[in-house]
Design goal:
70% helix
Length: 307
Amino acid sequence: MNSNISTSGNTPDKQPESNAEPKSVSFGLFKLMRPHQWVKNGFVFAPLLFTGLFLDMVALSQAFIAFALFSLAASATYIVNDLNDIEQDKQHPVKSLKRPLAAGWVKPNQAKILLVGLYALLGVGLWLQPAVMGVIAAYLLLNVAYSYYLKHQPVLDIFTIAIGFVLRVYAGAMAIAVPVSSWMFVTTLCLALFLAAIKRRQELVQTDQAGRKVLAFYSVALIDKYAEISATGALLFYSLFVMNARPELVMTIPFVLFGLFRYWYVSDMLGEGESPTDALLADKQLLFTVVGWVSVCVWALWPVGGV
């Protein structure tokens, strides 16, 4: 696990190691799509899980198609954002070494060709899942607005990131033709706001406002308050949802509580958290917590989804 400096000063600085240049342009283009970030699209499966339809092969296949379409859309937004952020990313201690455009592995014209190809593939989604593509279209438009304007606006930038997670849940619901409950909406929003707040916090701590203009409007103390409110809301609303609508899932509440505690520890003491995906994949306890939570949910809801 990476051991960057903590905000408390209990661990020493550790500079990111330079990555070897990709062996080919195709590998650089693959990295430009950030496939490891597709983990975040797992939110698409939330409606499938909580409705107990994970044993329905039709619903399962539709959810996986929605996941694939959202992954293409997410990769497209990453490319748009990276094209717009080349100069800023060059100033970032990690992004300047890991992002293909900022590191010079891929040329902007090559990235634009890949972007057109991704949009063409998404066009097929209009035939496969038109309702899901409506949500994805909203996601794409929101992220274009984020890349060129909203990410420079304090508070709005955090909410825009969070809404992206909510749209993933809505896409999953559209895929299997079920409504998104109010509980799921508000819980997802609070959890996403927590992740977005921690992301901004770590950017502020690690780059000292050098890598993103909006960081000049924030302080660590302010973002900590945002994170505390969001984490409390996520835990509260999830617990109320479980106790009122899914009492069989009450045993999952400790997993959520531990996950929040552990994620905050990984962020504050180990310097992770700027990328939720990287933090999850780098910390075994956090990863096992998510796997355990999903496993208990499947076990508890298995009879509901039985056919």
